[in-house]
């Protein structure tokens, strides 16, 4: 019996035959007997099991002397790994490696179906299918043709190489032949990676015309691969590429393109993006990023990136429970109109170290930090070519006391030391240094309340009194030109983003936080805060919300519910109830619709290089029309100037055998190097074959 089942497995070329050879076999039938000719016969609802493999047939006849095997259908074989074979009848020879299946249908990995008049098994490895129709569309017994299919005179399935070879293949959409190929090779669905073409795409732009992208995937071993994508249109000849490699301790990836086009006919254009990370010994991590482009308008014309400032870096870091160390080398390149790389800090060296100690004798926490920074401009012109280096350190002691009444006291005391070296600027002395002691005490009193319905509220008033000694050094503001006042730094002793600036004098911060959590409904969070100081700080701009001796009132909040609605808002309001900054973000998912949006208001401020106010709305949404069709749209609108910046529409169709993407995008903005343009994209991919598979699996039932 066991030999009979193994014969079936090997003859049908299933890998489960080798894997399950040591497992017990079970044969079930209405009748089981041996004839006078020593022929084993199982007939009537025959089922054979071994491991995950299952065979069903009307009858099985096996001659032990000749090795002949005859299976009467209908035959259904399932190997448990996704391969299913259906046939009307089967005959196998004495060698058990060659056979014939009539009226057969083979389904690979529940994705690709191959129907043939006849299947020949050759050497236990190859399946030759004659007069074959191949598709990944679900076929039903209603006479309707699949959306697409490949018809071939012969298809050879190499189970070892996991490849499908087609002879005289014709691609059909419904019953219409579209194109013919005398030879065609495709990977079967069980193959993870294989050389071959991927899904093509069509891109039409007002600048480059209509072009075709045809990617080709190349395997370079088990841990490397390369994808080359020629992009050809009437105005461009571009070769895109992507290289990936995995190592035992990390991975790298490079993306780029090489272009010759009509936009700049005498120049070679292109870009290169790369990134990688590696886990080193003793917990260190090495990472790098490369961003480079030939000219400032390349990304906008070709749509490879929205970046207008490029950053390349090399970073070595290690994070542990009580320590952190990092050192980085950066290179910046601006693509913004009106900015010159020679007058901007393009080469930056940055490093930091922090260590925490928990002295048992004192309690609390002792924290030591050290930061080094240097940036360099390529310009040799005095003042605008200024280069700066600095070293900043801090030592502080923190302690929290929780009283029986529920009052919480947070205390800290310490000092910072700072060294600066300024070159190529005669308006400032070269060397500067100082030591600035500081101290702060904060009080908070969290109060909780539980409602009858299960919701809970927490109200926490907070007040902090802080002091920082000394006067600010006479140095240029190189790094803290943009200050954000929010609920994350309202209790900081210095709200400047970098240590080249630090608030001085006495400050007081007051805030109230309120939150309500309802497991059955709305969750709400509100924060209100304001900062008072003994002396005003001229380094704070008017729209930062922190200028003068009294800051603007910070209002922030968030609401969300179980129905998919969420809103987050933040604004700064001065004593005259004028708003200098405001931000609103929201999203709502209901039914088949998802909508997200952002509104930003920034008052004009020349100190922040903003000559006019910014008022901008961004909206994007999607709608699932049905199980297969979905639509999307997005728009970015400049309310201040009553003009649209960008707008886009998308339409997607997905089912179990095909995916189609259509997108239209319009960019309205222009500059000296970039003109407004329209971009139309069209992608179509056949599902089922491993080279074109997506990560999602779509299923369809007959009649639906």
Automatic annotation (TrEMBL):
Reported function: Involved in the assembly of lipopolysaccharide (LPS) at the surface of the outer membrane.
Record's GO cellular component terms: cell outer membrane; transporter complex
Signal peptide per UniProt: 1-18
Family: Belongs to the LptD family.
Name of the protein: LPS-assembly protein LptD
Complex formation: Component of the lipopolysaccharide transport and assembly complex.
Pfam families documented for this protein: LptD
GO biological process: Gram-negative-bacterium-type cell outer membrane assembly; lipopolysaccharide transport
Organism this protein belongs to: Sulfitobacter sp. TCYB15
Main location: membrane
Cellular compartments annotated: Cell outer membrane
Transmembrane segments: none
Record key words, sorted: Cell outer membrane, Membrane, Signal
Record has DNA-binding as a keyword: no
Domain called LptD C-terminal: residue spans: 268-629
């Amino acid at each position: 019996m066991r030999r009979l089942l193994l014969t079936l497995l090997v003859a049908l070329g299933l890998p489960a035959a080798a894997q399950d050879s040591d497992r017990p076999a079970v044969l079930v039938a209405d009748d089981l007997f041996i004839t006078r000719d020593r022929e084993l016969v199982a007939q009537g609802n025959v089922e054979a099991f071994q491991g995950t493999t299952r065979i069903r047939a009307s009858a099985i006849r096996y001659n032990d002397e000749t090795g002949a095997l005859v299976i009467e259908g209908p035959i259904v074989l399932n190997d448990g790994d996704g391969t299913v074979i259906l046939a009307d009848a089967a005959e196998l020879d004495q060698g058990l490696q060659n056979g014939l299946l009539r009226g057969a249908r083979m389904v690979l990995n529940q994705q690709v179906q191959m129907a043939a008049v006849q299947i020949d098994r050759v050497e236990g490895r190859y399946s030759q299918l004659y007069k074959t129709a191949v598709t990944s569309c679900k076929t039903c017994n209603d006479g309707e043709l699949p959306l697409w299919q490949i018809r071939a005179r012969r298809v050879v399935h190499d189970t070892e190489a996991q490849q499908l070879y087609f002879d005289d293949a014709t691609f059909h959409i419904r019953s219409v032949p579209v194109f013919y190929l005398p030879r065609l090779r495709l990977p079967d669905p069980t193959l993870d990676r294989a050389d071959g073409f991927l899904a093509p795409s069509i891109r039409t732009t007002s600048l480059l015309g209509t072009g075709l992208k045809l990617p080709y995937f190349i395997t370079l071993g088990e841990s490397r691969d390369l994808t080359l994508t020629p992009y050809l249109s009437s105005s461009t000849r571009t070769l895109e590429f992507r290289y990936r490699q995995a190592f035992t301790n990390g991975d790298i990836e490079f993306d780029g393109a090489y272009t010759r086009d009509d936009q700049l006919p005498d120049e070679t254009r292109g870009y290169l993006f790369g990134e990688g990370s590696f886990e080193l010994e003793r917990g260190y991590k090495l990472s790098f990023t490369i961003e480079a482009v030939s000219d400032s308008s390349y990304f906008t014309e070709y749509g490879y990136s929205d970046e207008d400032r490029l950053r390349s870096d090399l970073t070595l870091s290690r994070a542990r429970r009580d320590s952190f160390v990092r050192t980085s080398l950066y290179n910046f390149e601006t693509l913004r109109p009106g900015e010159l790389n020679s007058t901007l800090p393009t080469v930056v060296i940055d490093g930091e170290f922090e260590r925490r100690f928990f002295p048992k004798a004192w309690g609390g926490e002792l924290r030591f930090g050290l930061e080094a920074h240097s940036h360099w401009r390529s310009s040799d012109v005095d003042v605008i070519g200024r280069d700066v280096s600095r070293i900043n350190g801090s030592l502080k002691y923190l302690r929290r006391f929780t009283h029986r009444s529920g009052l919480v006291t947070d205390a800290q005391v310490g000092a910072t030391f700072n060294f600066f070296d300024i070159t190529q600027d005669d308006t400032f002395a070269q060397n500067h240094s100082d030591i600035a002691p500081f101290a702060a005490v904060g009080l908070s009193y969290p109060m909780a309340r539980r409602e009858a319905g299960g919701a809970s509220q927490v109200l926490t008033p907070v007040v902090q009194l802080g002091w920082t000694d000394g006067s600010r050094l006479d140095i240029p503001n190189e790094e803290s030109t943009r200050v954000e006042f929010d609920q994350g730094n309202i209790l900081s002793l210095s709200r400047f983003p970098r240590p080249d600036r630090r608030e001085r004098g006495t400050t007081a911060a007051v805030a109230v936080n309120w939150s309500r959590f309802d497991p059955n409904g709305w969750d709400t969070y509100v924060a209100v805060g304001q900062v008072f100081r003994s002396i005003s700080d001229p380094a704070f701009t008017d729209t930062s919300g922190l200028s003068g001796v009294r800051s603007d009132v910070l209002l922030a909040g968030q609401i969300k519910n179980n129905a998919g609605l969420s809103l987050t808002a933040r604004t700064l309001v001065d004593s005259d109830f004028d708003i200098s900054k405001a931000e609103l973000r929201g999203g709502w998912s209901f039914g088949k619709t998802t909508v997200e949006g952002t509104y930003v208001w920034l008052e004009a401020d020349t100190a922040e290089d903003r000559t006019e106010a910014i008022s901008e709305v961004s909206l994007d949404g999607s709608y699932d029309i049905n199980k297969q069709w979905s639509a999307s749209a997005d728009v970015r609108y400049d309310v201040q100037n009553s003009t649209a910046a960008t707008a886009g529409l998308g339409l997607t169709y997905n089912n179990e055998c095909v995916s189609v993407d259509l997108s239209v995008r319009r960019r309205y903005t222009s500059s000296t190097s970039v003109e407004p343009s329209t971009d139309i994209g069209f992608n179509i991919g056949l599902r089922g074959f491993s080279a074109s598979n997506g990560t999602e699996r779509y299923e369809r039932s007959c009649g639906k």
